[in-house]
């Protein structure tokens, strides 16, 4: 590891207590990163290869939207769980299906807002050809914190007060980000780094550095963790590494929270970017391979269930049409299926009963009216690792 500083401290006081706030130096690090140690070159190659496999399998899926629709929601859930929400994937899907009595609405709204923020960011990058910029980050933040618990946390606006991480006060905190008057310069430097031409730095390295810098600046009153994780995906998509937003590191960060925070502090305190980069690259490789495995298991499940439906004979046509709706949304009611098919409600209900008899779907509310059916095995595969903390 090169001996380097990564910023400087400035004094502050709050309610009579003194503290030191940290202002990071602009990226890239100086001296430059040393990739020769810690097997970093091999770890980067492994991560690049795993990303290539992941990008390839999304093209092989018969309906990539089917996979991504659910996968984006799983990432949204995991990223929000790290911040303390207690929703499950079923809660989110029921909420989106307008069939969620008893679900903690504030929690689920936070997760749903994450999905909206990601979709907005990608649409702006692709359809509007808008640069990955502070303005876009603020737009996404406004969506992330709309409604619910975030509405009073300055959605879409950079903070105007001092924040701290851990502890009851800045003086006793684990880390104190820059004071608000230092934000404009720190954020302008981050934006310049984001605008570095593609190819000037490997995209994975750029994403790893930008994530730490964003979390260190902590530019918003709330939502920094979720937005910092979104930033990784946006960089990889904007740099052309991924065609679809199919890589998400929240499960890796969730399972290794202590390591994650220790390594962030290692960068801030002694400039150890290399240890953080190794951790990040390992996370990319592991997470990308897990996503490939998940996609392959879901493809196998769909193929197996389609074959079972085909064996029904005369009923196979209508049952298959209804099944394909569950393959797209996982949790559905009969009225939600009806607009998508030229079938009568009684015919749809009969098809759902056939799917129940095959053990492919099951009713999840226990009610006689407003019944909701789940493609349970699909949901189970997707929910692995996504239980509330």
UniProtKB/TrEMBL annotation:
Pfam family, one: Fic_N
Keyword match ATP-binding: yes
Keywords for the protein's UniProt record, in alphabetical order: ATP-binding, Nucleotide-binding, Nucleotidyltransferase, Transferase
Gene3D superfamilies found in the cross-reference section: Fido-like domain
GO molecular function, one term: ATP binding
Record domain Fido: where: 132-282
Site (Important for autoinhibition of adenylyltransferase activity) location in chain: 83
Catalytic function, reaction form: L-tyrosyl-[protein] + ATP = O-(5'-adenylyl)-L-tyrosyl-[protein] + diphosphate; L-threonyl-[protein] + ATP = 3-O-(5'-adenylyl)-L-threonyl-[protein] + diphosphate
Top enzyme category: transferase
Top-level taxon of origin: Bacteria
Keyword Nucleotide-binding: yes
Active site: 218
Residue numbers binding ATP: 83, 218, 222-229, 260-261
InterPro entries given in the database record: Fic/DOC_N, Fido, Fido-like_dom_sf, Fido_containing, SoFic-like
EC number of this enzyme: 2.7.7.108
Record text on subunit structure and interactions: Homodimer.
Role summary: Adenylyltransferase that mediates the addition of adenosine 5'-monophosphate (AMP) to specific residues of target proteins.
The protein's name: Protein adenylyltransferase
Organism annotation: Thermomonas haemolytica
């Amino acid at each position: 590891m090169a001996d380097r500083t990564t910023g400087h401290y400035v004094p502050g006081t709050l309610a009579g207590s003194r503290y030191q706030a940290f202002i990071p130096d602009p990226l890239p690090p100086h001296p430059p990163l040393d990739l020769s140690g810690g097997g970093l070159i091999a770890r980067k190659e492994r991560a690049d290869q795993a990303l290539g496999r992941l990008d390839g399998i999304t093209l092989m899926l018969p309906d990539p939207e089917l996979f991504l629709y659910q996968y984006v929601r799983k990432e949204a859930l995991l990223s929000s769980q790290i911040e303390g929400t207690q929703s499950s994937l079923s809660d989110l899907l029921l909420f989106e299906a307008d069939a969620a009595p008893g679900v903690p609405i504030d929690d689920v709204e936070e997760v749903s807002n994450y999905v909206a923020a990601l979709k907005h960011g990608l649409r702006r990058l692709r359809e509007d050809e808008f640069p990955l910029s502070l303005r876009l980050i603020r737009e996404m933040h406004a969506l992330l914190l709309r409604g619910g618990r975030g509405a009073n946390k300055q959605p879409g606006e950079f903070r105007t007060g001092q924040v701290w991480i851990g502890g009851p006060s800045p003086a006793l905190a684990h880390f104190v980000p820059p004071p608000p008057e230092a934000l404009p310069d720190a954020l302008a430097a981050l934006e310049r780094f984001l605008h570095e031409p593609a190819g000037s730095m490997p995209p994975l390295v750029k994403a790893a550095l930008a994530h730490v810098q964003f979390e260190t600046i902590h530019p918003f009153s709330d939502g920094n963790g979720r937005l910092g994780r979104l930033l990784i995906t946006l960089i990889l998509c904007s740099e052309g590494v991924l065609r679809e937003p199919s890589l998400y590191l929240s499960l890796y960060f969730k399972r290794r929270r202590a390591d994650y925070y220790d390594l962030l502090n290692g960068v801030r305190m002694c400039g150890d970017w290399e240890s953080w980069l190794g951790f990040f690259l390992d996370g990319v490789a592991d997470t990308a391979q897990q996503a490939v495995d998940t996609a392959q298991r879901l493809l196998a499940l769909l193929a197996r269930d389609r074959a079972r439906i085909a064996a029904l004979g005369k009923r196979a046509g209508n049952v298959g049409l209804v099944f394909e709706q569950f393959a797209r949304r996982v949790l559905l009611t009969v009225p939600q299926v009806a607009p998508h098919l030229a079938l009568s409600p009684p015919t749809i209900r009969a098809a759902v009963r056939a799917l129940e008899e095959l053990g492919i779907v099951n009713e999840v509310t226990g009610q006689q009216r407003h019944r909701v059916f789940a493609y349970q095995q699909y949901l189970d595969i997707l929910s692995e690792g996504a239980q509330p903390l």
